[in-house]
Amino acid sequence: MHEFIDIFLNYLSVERGLSKNTIISYRHDLQAYLDYLKDKRHVSSLEKVNKNQIIDFMLSLKEAGLNASSIARRLAAIKTFYRFLIREKILKDNPTSLLESPKLWKKIPQTLTLEEIETLIAQPDTRSMSGLRDRAIIELLYATGMRVSELSQLKVSDISMDVGFLRCLGKGNKERIIPLGRKAITSLKKYIEKARPHFLKGHSNNVLFLSRLHRRVSRQSIWKMIKKHASRCRIKKEIRPHILRHSFATHLLEGGADLRSVQEMLGHSDISTTQIYTHINKDRLKMIHRQFHPRP
Questions:
Q1: Residue where a domain terminates, one of 49, 70, 87
Q2: Could you say which of 171, 198, 216, 227 is catalytic?
Q3: pLDDT > 60? residue 282
Q4: Is-catalytic flag, 245?
Q5: Which CATH number is 10's domain given?
């Protein structure tokens, strides 16, 4: 059964253009599913799988302590896998056709306040080459709302500082253009002029953000760097890879930006994904109440 995973993943990569990280997630989820069928249910062929066995797999994930969003992701991977097998006429029947995904509460994403953002941006020591690079990375993540993986892939040629835009290649190789603020441009210029040649060490490379080994800075390294600086400036919140992206979207909407524009800048294909950022903080609600209620 496992050979069908490779065929499916090749389809996702070549025809749908999904990212390497997404492909890895699909492989992990599907291998766990097929291992369960083989080891726990002694199923040797996908044609013998029925709906109840898939439900049992979902229940085993719940018993193992996985949360609803992780279980829903695995079910979504399994459903996509079966739709592919049906389309390619490898299978005739789809046992997932009547299965519903677990109902999920939409969690309000963790964000930083403007004061925390300013403190975080100011934390890297710009007297050092790595400090110049780190500040430019943090400035750019907050200025654009890019995913860390997208920023890691940026090239120098993707930046148009004269007109204040950058070109970003997002999920599914979808290109989008994102405006840059003046402060982000200033930090980028300092990094490119002073620090980037130091990291290049005489090598030729179009990658924008480089490590000390003159290679592309990985998304894992960027995440660790942000956590390190957040810890040093005593930000108590849990620092996750998307926290600057969440802060970017939330602050724009709280400042009056329209939802469609934020959706475009974030690269969301569905506006319902962007709507999660339309929450308003309690302080602003109190301020509005005091300002407009006849008996504040």
A1: 87
A2: 171
A3: no
A4: yes
A5: 1.10.150
Query: Which domain range does residue 72 map to?
Result: 3-87
CATH number at residue 214: 1.10.443.10
Residue 193 · residue 126 · CB < 8 Å: no
CA dist., res. 19 & res. 27, Å (int): 12
Look up residue 192 and give its DSSP letter. I
Domain boundary among 50, 71, 87: 87
Q: Is 293 a catalytic residue?
A: no
pLDDT in tens, 95-119: 988 777 665 555 667 899 999 999 9
pLDDT in tens, 5-41: 999 999 998 888 888 888 999 999 999 999 999 888 8
Choosing from 74, 133, 135, 147, the catalytic residue is 147
Run of H or E residues at 7: helix 3-14
| HSE, side-chain direction, 13 A CA sphere, residue 231 | 7
**Has this prediction a pTM greater than 0.85?**
no
Q: Are residues 126 and 57 part of one domain?
A: no
